[in-house]
Design a protein that fits this description.
Blueprint (H helix, E strand, L loop, with lengths): L13 H8 L12 E2 L11 H8 L15 H15 L10 E4 L2 H12 L11 E6 L4 H8 L3 E8 L5 E2 L6 H4 L2 E7 L11 H14 L2 E5 L15 H7 L7 E6 H4 L8 E5 L1 H14 L5 H12 L2 H22 L12 E5 L8 H12 L1 E2 L1 E2 L16 E5 L4 H19 L1
Parallel strand pairs: 1-11, 3-4, 3-6, 6-7, 7-8
Antiparallel strand pairs: 2-9, 4-5, 8-9, 10-13, 12-13
Helix pairs in contact: 2-11, 3-11, 4-5, 4-10, 7-8, 12-14
């Protein structure tokens, strides 16, 4: 039996690596398990979304449109106009509902990448490093190769695109950005966007802006979005697509509801692809999504919970870890190599064994590129549980770090 040859290029997902790392370990039975490893929202789903799902059972009797209902696309357009202070995108041509940003990030590359026009090697998909592993899989399965640009701590973890050779830029067809970033929580500035747009103009690649963490932030200033940056710089949305989701914003990761918006020609081609791919959103999910995008009260309440957690936990962890409050998102990205030279994998394994707390090694979220793995000697902690559980985990981590320092 034969399979698609590009499947062999895919690496195990970070959580599969974590499972292998913990193999054979019996955690300390004195502690209940606490996981900060997976970025899965665990605040309760809003009641208004549950009610909308239950009240739309009658919609199951008809096939949904791949383009989504007009009501859904209009609700997304209205939310975008209010959130980003931009003219509402054309709901008919510039917005497309998707089954969560994850599947859209992957399938978008199938629409964008043209392996037949590559010169001097396969086309490239440029990714930040560390990165969301879907970017890499999307590159390989579209017939391209990923090219990683390492996050620079001195630039608030923004990739330094000035280090990329001209010969590389000439092969780039798609560039992924993630702002707020996973795992760093860093937000791109207007100057960062200006640089990216100028590079896109020069080399003709598409920018895919992953903005699924945009509604979790810790100051009064909401993170800048890609389409918003384009408007502020007097641009249209040429070669620009943003992706967003209800998963983190509204605590409904199981709903699998998001959207893409931007360049109308890309949206048109993506709709064609998705029509054949069978990617229409469940009509009940569409009805619930309309309600979710039209309500901000539950989003503000959710953001308040995260702010309260990070205000309590970040200073506590900073007593022993090299960590600081991020710009946004729900991760803490901490250095650990100052603790007796311990590696990120050694830290995660020993913490799990002694204190039954799970964190994700940073090296699992990055690739060796340009001589380094920029995730090495860091850990990612997802503060997604209720505050009491996160606080208990933080106290155990501090105790563990003090053991390492003694």
């Amino acid at each position: 039996m034969t399979f698609h040859p590009y499947l062999s290029r895919l690496q195990p997902y970070p959580f599969e690596k974590l499972k292998r790392l913990f193999a054979g370990i019996t955690p300390n039975p004195a502690y209940t398990p606490i996981s900060l490893g997976i970025g899965e929202p665990r605040h309760p789903a809003p009641q208004l979304i549950k009610d909308a799902l239950c009240n739309s059972l009658q919609t199951l009797s008809a096939y949904p449109l791949t383009a989504g209902s007009e009501a859904l696309r209009k609700s997304i357009a209205g939310w975008m106009a209010n959130r980003y202070a931009i003219p509402a995108p054309d709901f008919a041509t510039e917005i497309l509902p998707v089954n969560g940003s994850r599947e859209a990030l992957f399938s978008l590359a199938q629409t964008i990448i043209n392996p037949l026009v590559a010169e001097n090697g396969p086309p490239l998909v440029m990714c930040p490093n560390p990165f969301y592993q879907i970017y890499e899989g999307a590159a390989y399965l579209s017939g391209a190769e990923p090219y990683f640009v390492n996050a620079d701590p001195a630039r608030n973890y923004a990739p330094d695109y000035s280090t990329v050779p001209e010969s590389v830029w000439q092969r780039v067809q798609l560039l992924f950005v993630c702002s707020p970033g996973n795992p760093t929580g860093a937000v791109l500035t207007l100057e960062d966007w200006k640089e990216l747009f100028e590079l896109s103009d020069r080399y003709g690649f598409v920018i895919a802006s992953d903005e699924c963490y945009s509604e979790i932030y810790f100051t009064d200033e909401a993170p800048l979005g890609g389409l918003q940056a384009a408007r502020l710089l007097g641009r249209d949305y040429s070669r620009l697509i943003m992706l967003s989701s209800l998963s983190k914003r509204s605590n409904v990761p199981g709903l699998r509801s998001g959207f893409v918006a931007g360049d109308a020609e890309i949206i048109r081609q993506f709709l064609l692809y998705r029509t054949y791919h069978g990617s229409a959103m469940n009509p009940m999910v569409q009805a619930a999504s309309v309600v979710a995008w039209q309500d901000e009260e539950h989003v503000r309440e959710n953001r308040t919970q995260y702010r309260q957690k990070f205000e309590k936990i970040t200073p506590l962890l900073a007593e022993t870890l090299d960590v600081q409050l991020p710009d946004a998102a729900f991760y803490l990205w901490a250095k650990v190599d100052h603790l007796g030279g311990i590696s990120d994998t050694e830290f995660a394994r020993a913490l799990y064994e002694r204190y039954h707390v799970t964190v994700l090694p940073g090296s699992y979220l990055a690739r060796d590129a340009h001589g380094i793995n920029p995730g090495a000697n860091r850990i990612r902690m997802a503060l997604v549980a209720e505050v009491e559980e996160c606080l208990e985990a933080a106290q155990r981590i501090v105790a563990f770090c003090k053991e390492l320092q003694s």
